[in-house]
Amino acid sequence: PEPEPEPEPEPEPEPEPEPEPEPEPIAPVLAEADPIPAPAPLLWPALRRVVLDPKHLAKHRLISATREDPAHVAFDVLRTKLLAALRTHGWHRVAITSPTPDCGKSFVAANLAISLSRQSSVRTVLMDMDLRRPSLAHTLGQPDPGRMAGFLSGDIPLQRFLTCPEENALNIGQTLAMGLNDRAEPYAAEILHAPETGEVLQDLYRRLAPDVVIFDMPPALYYDDVLGFRPQFDGVLIVVGGGRTTAQHIRDVKARFGTDTPLLGVVMNRAEGESIAKYGY
User: Fold this and answer.
1) Which range marks the domain in which residue 87 is found?
2) Res 6: pLDDT
3) What pLDDT is recorded for position 171?
């Protein structure tokens, strides 16, 4: 008999493929943050240009403009010292005030701003924040400058309110922006304290990127305007009037501001001003 054939071996099972390695865990994806908005283009070219009349400036004792009076050197020295102090601390915003009326604070603010404007690398903004008795528009010969309260409330756009000097023979720089005022406000403190004021000023800083902002403020010992505006400035210059300001006045101003308000300097001004009765405080 023929031998039986050997049974065919069963095929070996195909090897199972090795499992693919699990991918390493990926860090959880966080919700994407809102992109930081790019800085707005600086608005200096869009500001309205105005003429500064040399005769008018000389008549109102803007000695930094005409430079005919040797006293203009004092403002150049003040400019240099102020810039050094601001740069040391990374500050930009300066309030200029006085203890009482008629010490010449607006005179100092205007002359200092003009002196600063002659440094082309320094962008300067001059703001008339003496809302009870604005005077810088008259001093600078600018009729109908608009209402500061309207600007601070956001009703008047920045490029319609602030102005720059036209090119001029006095070499007053076009890196000076002026926010002037022609309307006295009975509720000045409330306007300066308002949140909208801070928001509008923050927008100004963002769109003009000023190196120095000068706020011409009311006298510090009258009402609470300057105290209420304290969050909006980095330091204060106190202007004292020769023959008007006493040592007690200066002590009272320092006490009112307290120790948390940097004092950038005390400026002695011997110019005579108007009578206290005419000042309106």
Assistant:
1) 44-272
2) 57
3) 92
d(CA 241, CA 146): 30
For residue 225 the two structure tokens come to 């305007």
142 domain-assigned: yes
Which pLDDT belongs to residue 273?
43
Q: Is 185 within a domain?
A: yes
Q: How far apart are CA 23 and CA 244, in angstroms?
A: 82
Tokens of 89: 């601390």
Residue carrying structure tokens 């956001």: 154
- Please identify every stretch of the chain with a pLDDT value under 70, giving residue numbers as ranges: 1-41, 271-281
Question: Considering its fold, how many domains does the chain have in total?
Answer: 1
What pLDDT is stored for residue 11 in this prediction?
55
Scan for tokens 């003496």, then name that residue. 130
**pLDDT value of position 33:** 40
Q: What pLDDT is stored for residue 68 in this prediction? A: 80
Closest CA to 55 of 70, 65, 41, 45: 65
Residues 128/179, Cβ–Cβ less than 8 Å: yes
In a domain, 12, yes or no: no
What CATH code is carried by the domain that includes residue 252? Answer: 3.40.50.300
DSSP result, the chain: -PPPPPPPPPPPPPPPPPPPPPPPPPPPPPPPPPPPPPPPPP-GGGSEEE---HHHHHHTT-HHHH--STTHHHHHHHHHHHHHHHHHHT--EEEEE-SSSSS-HHHHHHHHHHHHHTSTT--EEEEE--TTS--HHHHTT-S----HHHHHTTSS-HHHH-EEEPS-TT---TTEEEE------TTHHHHHHSHHHHHHHHHHHHHH--SEEEEEPPPTTSTTHHHHTGGG-SEEEEEEETTT--HHHHHHHHHHH-TTS-EEEEEEE------HHHHT-
